[in-house]
Amino acid sequence: RDDLLSSGFWEASAGAVRAPLGRSVEPPARCVCYGLGRFGACPVARYQLAFLLLLLEELRVPPGQCSLFDPAFSPQEAVALRQLGMRLLPENEEGKHDVEGSATVFYMVHCGKALYNNLLWRNWSAEALSKMVIIGNSFRGMEERLLSRVLERDYTYIAKVLKGTEEVALPTHPRYLDTFNDTSVHWFPLQKLQELTPQVWDFLEEPMYQDCEDLDIIRREDGAE
């Protein structure tokens, strides 16, 4: 935490974090964090946890309104998160978390594309998506790196929401190149979502990833290797 503050990285990042709030996105009431990793053993995960704590302060989200899940958490790490006042989700949602009408920020740094796709599917309506802010892998970067046919086939909801997305990248910093690289703040203005065609919203099939070759997702135990 002190490193993020003293290095100037947090100060430079705060503008990106605040960007959605002045653009028709209401302040989030809660936060959901996926894929934080083994912060007890991994310095990258510790910096990401410190960033999360600063994020909650900046957005004035109480720690008790922040829920986390990562199957890698050790019992000691689970205790530490509870001591920080945060909650652990009781089961693996595979990213399928409903905002349930509450403005929510999703903190998902370096998660697999399928996790973002599942989250979008669960909240596939203009009203729900307009209440979401996603801090995670750049959607623009996914579009640039993947063949369009692969993006549309395997990650349908990411592909369909691109025209309704606003995105601001976190700044680059030599000390945190492996920690926050390719990370952006995404939000979905209601006006842009309403401009999408009706056909975009009519497709509601749950993602299955049967043809996906590079599947990287937090799976339920019965589906994990």
TrEMBL record:
Source species: Probosciger aterrimus
Family: Belongs to the SRR1 family.
TM region positions: none
Gene: Srrd
Origin superkingdom: Eukaryota
GO cellular component terms attached to this protein's record: cytoplasm; nucleus
InterPro entries: SRR1-like (IPR012942), SRR1L (IPR040044)
SRR1-like domain: residues covered: 26-187
Record protein name field: SRR1L protein
